[in-house]
Specification:
The protein is of the alpha/beta class. It folds into 3 domains: 47 residues, Up-down Bundle (Transferase, Pyrimidine Nucleoside Phosphorylase, Chain A, domain 3); 245 residues, Nucleoside phosphorylase/phosphoribosyltransferase catalytic domain (Pyrimidine Nucleoside Phosphorylase, Chain A, domain 2); 90 residues, Aldehyde Oxidoreductase, domain 3 (Alpha-Beta Complex), CATH 3.90.1170.30. It is globular, with a radius of gyration of 22 Å.
Length: 434
């Protein structure tokens, strides 16, 4: 293969063969193609786009660059879940126990976060003693025994994707729908589950700002997944305001526990119930979405999902007493309230600014090597459509540094837009593609 010819062909808008893409990716992973040539290809793909066939070929090559997770020892239907990420998105902490409580097997490999807050692993590691570093045998045994495990992705799983994503991050080629789809699906395919649920966030606090873009990505994800004979459901959900109220690692764990106890925010509960129901509908075709959602609600109301979460914590070395006593989680030293300077109704929230405020406090990271403060973050008290009186609290700041708290205060105050009339909030779910 002549790499320059492949780059030139894509630059000129020609469709590449599966073999050309495969050789390019595997040779890059092996160090035989330098960064500058892969960067040139990524920019050509960003500008010219990739066909569905090329996207599938890219996905397959990235999967084949490493090992795949062998789940054959796990009896039953295996389910994986992915979210494109957003502000206060702690659905994995609630949804994984719910799915397991419904009798499904959930081998969930998650990542660490860049940006607003930590990823699922960072949130769970705010639980004292909790480990996300499980070897393959322990991971599989735990799923067999209690129905679920949440662990870090191993280095030998889709290594080409890690290298390519790092290059995309510094070459302004991140927001390409085919490249995003291949990156997401390569990891999901390598994890070998039977059913894949993908939550595509759209709005001011999400990577996808536009609904049409989100639809295009969702359809691409569905098509790629189907080409690998996976059952896929893609749900487009709102991120024009934080999900729930808590934004920050241990704060989100508290909110997840509350939701599993049946007393969490209504939007977080409703989204988890609906997502769980959509998965159940793929398993039991004869049941309607309403029947499946009712079953999902039942495992919350009965406490079965909470008990699965307790078992996950114990199995992964954590202190399960946090379920009864959340003060055992890391707590911030400073608590401040951000009050409204006017009266009205919450008309808009710059969700990204709330996320940035949490990151400024130390809940997120700009670089992979940055350390996260698990105790800090923001708790939103007013959401879209809520009435506000002058002096009422819009949000609470949980901080360990006064200067950071001051910077977060300004971001939060500026994030709120009040109007004279009450307007309905956005839909929680925009579309289900399956």
């Amino acid at each position: 293969m002549n790499v320059v010819d492949v780059i030139a062909a894509k630059r000129d808008g020609k469709e590449l063969s599966e073999l050309e893409i495969r050789q390019l990716v595997l040779n890059y992973d092996a160090g035989r193609v330098p960064d500058y040539q892969m960067a040139a290809f990524l920019m050509a793909a960003y500008l010219q786009g990739l066909s569905l066939g090329e996207t599938i070929a890219l996905t397959r090559a990235m999967v084949d660059s490493g090992t795949t997770l062998d789940l054959s020892k796990i009896a039953g239907i295996k389910v994986d879940k992915h979210s494109s990420g957003g502000v206060g998105d702690k659905t994995t902490l609630v949804l994984v126990p719910m799915l397991a409580a419904c009798g499904l097997k959930v081998p969930k490999m998650s990542g660490r976060g860049l940006g607003f807050t930590g990823g699922t692993l960072d949130k769970l590691e705010s639980i004292p003693g909790f480990t996300t570093a499980l070897n393959a045998d322990r991971f599989i045994q735990q799923v067999q025994h209690i129905g679920a495990a949440i662990a870090g992705q191993t280095d030998d799983l889709v290594p080409a994707d890690k290298k390519i994503y790092a290059l995309r991050d510094v070459t302004a080629t991140v927001d390409s729908i085919p490249l995003i789809a291949a990156s997401i699906m390569s990891k999901k395919i390598a994890c070998s589950s039977d059913i894949i649920l993908i939550d595509v966030k759209v709005g001011s606090g999400a990577f996808m700002k536009d609904l049409d873009q989100a639809r295009n990505l969702s359809r691409m994800l569905l098509a790629v997944g189907q080409s690998f004979n996976r059952q896929i459901v893609v749900v487009i959900t709102d991120m024009n305001q934080p999900l729930g109220r808590a934004v920050g690692n241990s704060l989100e764990v508290v909110e997840a526990i509350d939701t599993l106890k049946g007393c969490g925010p209504s939007d977080l509960r409703e989204l988890c119930v609906q997502l769980c129901g959509f998965v159940l509908n793929l398993v039991e075709y004869s049941r309607s979405d309403e029947e499946c959602a009712a079953r999902a609600s039942a495992v919350l109301d009965s406490g079965d999902a909470l008990e699965v979460f307790r078992e996950i914590i114990v199995a992964q070395g954590g202190n399960s007493r946090v379920i009864e006593d959340t003060s055992l989680l890391p707590l911030a030293q400073i608590k401040e309230e951000v009050a409204s300077l006017e009266s009205g109704f919450v008309e808009a929230i710059n969700c990204a600014a709330i996320g940035k405020a949490s990151a400024v406090l130390g809940a997120g990271r700009e670089r992979k090597e940055d350390r996260i403060d698990p105790a800090v973050g923001v708790v939103v008290r007013k959401k879209l459509g809520d009435p506000v009186e002058r002096g009422e609290v819009l949000a609470e700041i949980h901080a360990n540094d006064g200067e950071r708290a001051s910077a977060a205060r300004k971001l939060i105050a500026d994030a709120y837009c009040l109007g004279p009339q009450q307007r309905p909030g956005p839909s929680l779910i925009y579309e289900v593609i399956r």
